[in-house]
Amino acid sequence: LLLLPLLLVLLLCAVCGEGRSGGAQWGRFTACVYKRAGRLLRSRSGACAAAQMFRQFHAMNRANCRKCDKYFHCRANFLAVRSCRGGSSRRVAEIISFCRELSQPGNPRDRRGDEAANRFGRRGGNCGARYLRSYGCAYRPRTGQCKW
């Protein structure tokens, strides 16, 4: 839990570095997360959920695969809830996902798709079956690379 502030900063960098207007998103995302989840992030399950989401957003940026963002949104929420059993994990996943969507500029239709993927993952859905091949995503979870 002592590393939580560092983890949150890394998560913020990963999320804000991904979008089109990185600097403008930073303040909005940070304010949103702290306002809605500040206390929850100090719990074990809340910190775990934030860490799981960071890992998936980092994997998404590292893989840099086209048409794969829905898979990574889904997987981040799935892991945050399923790997971090506890009262705060689901709520922290919801808040981080909400704040990310709120702070990202872009297409409302794409945003709705991201939100649906977030919910599907939190509900325990099979992210790979729904969002990999059927969406034209060439990401291979076993290797962490984009290849057909």
From TrEMBL:
InterPro entries: Serum_amyloid_A. The keyword Signal applies. It comes from the Eukaryota. GO terms for cellular component: extracellular region. The keyword Membrane does not apply. Pfam families: SAA. Keywords: Signal. Residues 1-19 form the signal peptide. This is Putative conserved secreted protein. The lineage of its organism: Eukaryota, Metazoa, Ecdysozoa, Arthropoda, Chelicerata.
